[in-house]
Write a structure and sequence with these properties.
By secondary structure, this protein is α+β, with helices and mostly antiparallel strands. The protein is built from eleven helices and 19 strands. It folds into two domains: 310 residues, Aminopeptidase (3-Layer(aba) Sandwich); 98 residues, Pdz3 Domain (Roll).
Length: 434
């Protein structure tokens, strides 16, 4: 990525919500079993190859960058995916640089023109000549994490897609972007100029993998979750069995290939396992990559990708408000308040003990902002900033729906919350009011 930065998979849902993703009764995805085929042992050789000195740091437009592109194209050529670049090949050329594009056409004629894009840049900074290389200029910067890791994860996704027993309903484009380190050139070019095979397809969602090879403490940073209604909820569902800690960052900066898509009005997520001292440094080598972690993040990405591509519901609706939101906006929504919980009428139950806010980007997962000490939900383990997603086995439809169901509940209920991308199940009991 450029300069600026400060496992098995979930059973997927199939219910429809206007303008976004809805929770509903979970059922196994038609693709769940195949996702287990994404393994670190398979991805690692591609990281090693792309981060080899022979590619001289893969600077876009250079001899090494061209060689890395030929390597990727050679790996995906035998797969049952259609070349989607210029002139019937895999390459989309712009200047001396080349995107690599492979298409899996959708199986449902009604939505096959809706294109789901999954991408990762494969270029790096060569000999450190592209700022902000932190190593001495003249040394090869192999970029194993940035972004041979994402490019290798994408090869595994392409391989899985080619082996599916049936294609998803929507079309999927697998894209290795060039020129990212020089200013997001490849993804921006794609959005301006579509090769002929893609001319009739309309991108409805995209997913970007950038620096996914250094998973630490199971923690993944997520960017762009505010760009589409229900994207956080959808990714959390895809994370149920993977169990990663998802850190949602609201800031949008033009520092990787998710940004041109969001700026173009396309709901987009980026997954990233965080910066480290080897970022843009000659020591970002393959020996430092956590291959199993890379595979886990790739399975999470693929679960979400297939969910969007195969869902009966509509694709996520873009939220233009996301470009004005920031960490400060998140603070205003999620700041814990010392709100009064109130008292019930005589003869009724004691209060459950929370206050909450509606979130326009996640209408079916209200955010808890107050948990009264000693209240039933506090005793059950509910915490401020949790998001209530399910009550007594049924999904929450809205903030008002959640409030109504708490009011109408008897002496006990089961509550499922989403906390940092993980689902937490609790059981609460309460006593009659004094």
């Amino acid at each position: 990525m450029p300069c600026r930065w400060p496992v098995p998979v979930v059973a997927l849902v199939a219910s429809l919500a206007a303008g976004g993703f809805a929770r509903g009764e979970e059922k196994p995805s038609a693709f769940t079993a195949t996702l287990d085929g994404i393994r670190g042992a398979d991805a690692r050789p591609h990281v090693i190859a792309l981060a080899d000195d022979s590619f001289e740091g893969r600077e876009a437009g250079s001899r090494g960058g061209q060689g890395a592109g030929h390597y990727i194209a050679g790996v995906i050529a035998p797969l049952r995916l259609l070349p989607a670049g210029d002139g019937g090949g895999f390459f989309q050329r712009f200047g001396a640089m080349r995107n690599i594009l492979a298409l899996l056409p959708g199986s449902d004629p009604a939505v096959a023109d809706e294109l789901v894009v999954v991408g990762a840049h494969y270029d790096h900074v060569g000999y450190g000549a592209v700022p902000p290389g932190t190593g001495a200029a003249g040394q090869i910067h192999n970029g194993a994490d940035d972004n041979a890791s994402g490019a290798a994860g994408l090869i595994e996704i392409a391989t899985l897609l080619a082996e599916l027993p049936r294609p998803p309903r929507r079309s999927i484009l697998v894209a290795w972007w060039d020129g990212e380190e020089k200013g997001l050139l490849g993804s921006s070019h794609f959005l301006r100029v579509r090769p002929g095979r893609l001319a009739g397809l309309r991108p409805v969602f995209s997913l970007n993998l950038d620096m996914i090879g250094r998973l630490r403490a199971g923690r993944v940073e997520v960017f762009g979750s505010r760009s589409g209604i229900g994207l956080r909820s959808a990714l959390a569902r895809a994370n149920v069995r993977t169990g990663l800690e998802l850190v949602f960052d609201w800031d949008l900066v033009d520092d990787s290939d998710h940004y041109p898509f969001i700026a173009g009005g396309i709901p987009t997520l980026m997954l990233h396992t965080g910066l480290h001292p080897e970022y843009h440094h000659p020591d970002d080598d393959a020996a430092r990559i956590d291959s199993d972690g890379l595979a886990t993040v790739t399975r999470l990405a693929c679960a979400l990708l297939l969910d969007v591509a195969d869902a009966a519901r509509a694709p996520p609706t873009y939220r233009p408000e996301c470009r004005a939101e920031s960490a400060r906006s998140r603070e205003l929504l999620e700041t814990v308040q010392q709100a009064s919980i109130g008292s019930p009428p005589r003869g009724r139950w004691q209060p459950w003990g929370i206050a909450s806010r509606a979130d326009p980007a996640e209408p079916d997962s209200p955010v808890v902002v107050t948990v009264a000490d000693g209240s039933p939900l506090a005793t059950a383990g509910i915490m401020a900033r949790d998001r209530v997603v399910e009550i007594d086995g049924l999904p929450v439809g809205s903030h008002d729906d959640m409030l109504r169901r708490f009011r109408e509940a008897g002496d006990q209920l089961d509550v499922v919350v989403e906390r940092n991308g993980r689902r937490v199940s609790t059981h609460a009991r309460r006593q009659p009011a004094e």
